[in-house]
Amino acid sequence: MDNTSTKKIAIITTLNHNIGDDFVREGIKYLLKEKLGDNISFSNIHKHSPITTRNFFEIIKSRRISNIIDSIIPIKWTRDKIIEADIVVQSGAPVYWCHKSNESHCCNNEWYKPLIKNRFLRYTKSAKLLNLAAGSCQKYNSDGSEFCEKCNDYIKEFYKISSVTTLRDSLAKDIFSQIDIKSNVLPCSSIFAIDEYGLSDSGSEYIVLNYMKGGAHYTFGQNIDFKKWELEFSKFYFEIKKYERVIFSCHNKQEVDLVMKFDPEAEIFYKKNDYLAYMKFYSKAKFGIMNRVHGAFLISSFGKPSLIIGNDSRAKMADEIGLKNYFVNDVSYDILMQEYKYLNSGADNYKERFRIIKEKAYKNYMKELSIL
What we know:
By secondary structure, the chain is of the alpha/beta class. The protein has two domains: 7-185, Rossmann fold (3-Layer(aba) Sandwich); 199-354, Rossmann fold (3-Layer(aba) Sandwich), CATH 3.40.50.2000. The protein contains 13 helices and 15 strands. The strands form three sheets. Strands 1, 2, 3, 4, 7, 8 and 9 form a seven-stranded parallel sheet that branches. The radius of gyration is 21 Å and the shape is globular. The protein starts with 6 loop residues before the first strand and ends with a helix.
């Protein structure tokens, strides 16, 4: 790549879809600027509607319509973000999953074929592909052995054509190891999102809670005790509400509705698709008790601890930034009170522990990006 011209970077992400994805992407942008300087331009592609890689088709969010347009209009007839890019980035997300029970396989995802195989591999010459903060999405206690041959072949191919691959959880590394691939696990890039906007700790005004039915998006065939989680969590919430200011962070309207069912008077923060507003909100948190993993990561990015409670392997991303995590079925009122006291005490000087983790993560990301 010419070091004097503006580098074009196309990011495969989501748009107006998931606040967590926004945090991951903004962190990646910060890291790339740190490595390459400011002489770069970014364009975003909504992975659930790959047609958004074509200029002037960005408003289309339907996967079905995306597929129809891409099959009718030849790729070379329109300007295209992937084809014009010097660098293409898969922005941290669950990239590795294999669920035979419902025939959901990562090798069949909606973006890899149209964006990577049909464009990046076919039409780009010197562009580099970066797969950053890639994660798993399996059952909570998965060991990765359930992956089928087709998914493993996809993982191998994606790794081979990528100039850089970084993983965000240890299960992803185990999945790689079982097919003889070595790659590094680094904390999710979302911890750098606040640096993209120059944000810092704004005080400790409230405790942040986040509640999701069953503790996460999916169950993956696990026998999740939805009612128990609701009862234990609400009992805990009504207890600490007596002596703490508690605000629910809801990343979507469904979460707002869930909270309102057990407390119509709850204090709620909800700003649809406004990731910067969430960053500023989290900057004033004392600490968090969260189902949303990336809500916890944002709180942590300000040097404040959180507890993550989930039901799939994404919750274990917490290990990489020194946070505790629990399987939702194992959580009781007593455990929540115990962890509340731990967080309230500073969580073994979490601020300093996180500072060291983040400094190391920054150095390792810069090392991984040294090929640019």
